[in-house]
Structure formats: structure tokens, C-alpha cells
Amino acid sequence: MAEHDNDHKIKISSVLDKKGTAIYSISPESSLKQMANEMLQRKIGSLVVTDKDGSLTGIISERDFLNVVDKHTKDWEDIIVSDVMTKEVITASPDETLEQVMSKMDRHHIRHIPIMDDNKIMGVLALGDIINALLDKSLFQNELLKRYIKDWPKDN
What we know:
This protein has one domain: CBS-domain (Roll), CATH 3.10.580.10. It has 5 helices and 5 strands; from the N terminus they run H-E-H-E-E-H-H-E-E-H. It has helices at residues 12-19, 32-42, 62-71, 98-108, 127-150, and strands at 25-26, 46-50, 56-61, 112-117, 120-126. The chain has a 3-stranded mixed β-sheet. A two-stranded antiparallel sheet has the order 4-5. A hairpin with a 5-residue loop joins strand 2 (46-50) and strand 3 (56-61). The two termini are 38 Å apart.
């Protein structure tokens, strides 16, 4: 289960610790065909776009891909990632809480958010990761309540 600080807020760093920090990226020069194959192979909904130094230059998601395919039904395979990616990437810090990141994702209507620490990509959180962290927290709290009730003194 994700670790909690004193006020029971889940830190993003603990979600990444549980999820793992595998980072799937693609270069801006890659074709959308390469991007689609990578997403399908890894069963993921987004890729961070990085330059040759590994610096974040954008993010591309399933939604970006579908918008292109809808507009370019015949020639989408030759379009390159940099033409489609989101260049002004919304990011979060490992020190932020899950609630802060959920609010940020909702405000910007995004489903994937890179976690950055000093301009270094630490991981990417998706909505599913957030749901899993919240489910873990609920199950943990449920178990604590069950134990508390079970140990409650019985009246004679």
C-alpha cells in the first residue's frame, strides 16, 4: 500500500514506489505508426517525448492519436510525433499529494501526467494508477475499521 504522511495524504513519490518508475518514451522524429505500435505493445495510453539527452519535450496520448487519425484517415502513418504532441506539458512533483495531482489533471483535462524532479522524469502517472492508490487506501482503512470494531469491548 502507498505510504501516508501524518495527515493521511498520499504522496506521489509513494505511488511511484509501488507502481514502479518505468518510463516509456519516444523521440519527436518518430512516426505516428511507430508511436501506435509502441503503445499497443506496452499496453499504455501515453508516451513522454524526449530529446536525445532524455529531456522532456512533450507528451503524446491515445487522444492525440485519435484526433489525428480522424483528420488524416489515409496518411496518418507518415505524420511525426512532434507535429502532434502536446508541447506545453503539465507535470507534477513527487512531493505533491495525490489529491493535488488529481485536481491538476481534472483542471487540465488530462489522463497522464509526468512526474518531474529537478527537470528529470521520475515516472508517469495515469488515471488507473490514481484509482489503484485510492482503492488501496480505502481497503486499508476498511481493514482498520474492521479490526477496531472486532476489538471493541463487548457489553455483558
